[in-house]
Amino acid sequence: MHDRVAAPTYDAQSPPVARATSSPGEDEPIRVTLHVVSSSHGQVEVSGLLGAIDRIDARGCGAAIVASDSDIRTTDHYRVTRIDLRLGDLLLRPAVARALRELADDPASAAKIAAAGRALQTAARSAGPAPSGARGTHAQADVRPAYHVSIHGAHQATRASRSSVNATHVYDVRADVPLALLLAGNAALARALAVAVVERPPGAATNRFPSEAVGEGRHLTGWQVLGHASVTSPFDRATLTSAWGRATVTGAQVMAVGDHIDVTQSADFDLARPSMVDFPRASTEFHARSGLRTPSAPPSRAATPPSFLDVGHRGAGTRNPTSSPASAPGPFG
């Protein structure tokens, strides 16, 4: 997957300067805190020696601040231009394949439909919990600053007794979301998938399932989608230098040194309409590996029950108000 990172913007109430100076009493140096803030999808790592920082080489950082009091607000805007729902190898899991083969022998059996649906849900849950919130981190550590701190290379270098910085970044990304994320908590969708997979030759249930999956996929939250997106961070490594050595900081959107620092992080999302991209391939591969024979006549109407999603079930979640179905791709992407 490829993504595009728009140029970050910074809005600082304090003018950028090349040098920041503090003058604590020599007898009792003021202990202050280093704060390192990542983007919402990222992580912060700080390694090396800290203490008496006298230089911040912030070429790999978004903004660097030295101030007694700082108010830092970061906003990440994610424009998710494509969401591909994928089955992957879910149908080939041993328990799932066994339940589907049994259903293929009697596709009208409500008990076998339910059993296949449960097998799909169990396999889906084994993938682990769904992402539910920001992965970004806000790390901090006590340091004892030198009386003079020089800042080099940051987009925004700020020195003031009171500083307020707003940092905004826009990311264009694509996401491959496993269908397991939807199946784990949606028994009706799991049963609909089981019926569609064993239907041979393909008929109404097979044709209907991709649209059903897409409909349920529109309940995905931005955090769930972001958890399966690959996002390139514009932030590389920054270096803190002291008399005792260096500390390397990676993933830093903002670094701040001061004694009173408040950090607020937020993110918003513009989600595209999902597409079900690999259902035909996954279903065909399952049949090929299972050695199931294609019946010579279409299944009876009883073997293709009405959609399970038409009998009152709806998946949990909130529709994304910014989605635009009119310009969206079809159910197969």
Description:
With about 325 residues, this protein is of the alpha/beta class. It folds into 2 domains: about 5-80 and about 135-175 and about 230-270, no CATH class; about 80-130 and about 175-225 and about 270-325, no CATH class. The protein has 7 helices and 15 strands. The protein has helices at about 95-105, 110-125, 180-185, 185-200, 205-215, 220-225, 280-290, and strands at about 5, 10, 20, 30-35, 45-50, 55, 65-85, 140-145, 150, 155-180, 235-240, 245-250, 255-260, 260-270, 275. The strands form 2 sheets. Strands 1, 2, 4, 7, 8, 10, 13, 14 and 15 form a 9-stranded mixed sheet that branches. The chain has a 6-stranded mixed sheet with strand order 3-9-6-11-12-5, with no helix packed on it. The longest helix has 16 residues, at about 110-125. The protein is elongated and about 80 Å long. The protein starts with a strand and ends in a 43-residue tail after the last helix. The model is unreliable at about 1-30, about 295-305 and about 310-333 (pLDDT under 50).
Key words describing this protein structure:
333 residues; alpha/beta; 9-stranded mixed beta sheet; 6-stranded mixed beta sheet; 34% strand; elongated; disordered N terminus; disordered C terminus
What's the multimeric state?
A: single chain
Number of strands: 15
Based on Cα principal axes, name the global outline: elongated
The share of residues in extended strands comes to: 25-35%
Cα(first) to Cα(last) distance is: 15 Å
Along the chain, the helix and strand elements come as EEEEEEEHHEEEHHHHEEEEEH
* Count of alpha and pi helical runs: 7
Rg on CA atoms, Å? 27 Å
What's the story with the biggest beta sheet?
A: 9 strands, mixed
Q: Structural class, from secondary structure content?
A: alpha/beta
Segments where pLDDT lies below 50 for 5+ residues? 1-29, 295-304, 311-333
Question: Helicity level, as a percent range?
Answer: 10-25%
- The number of domains is 2
Mean pLDDT: 76
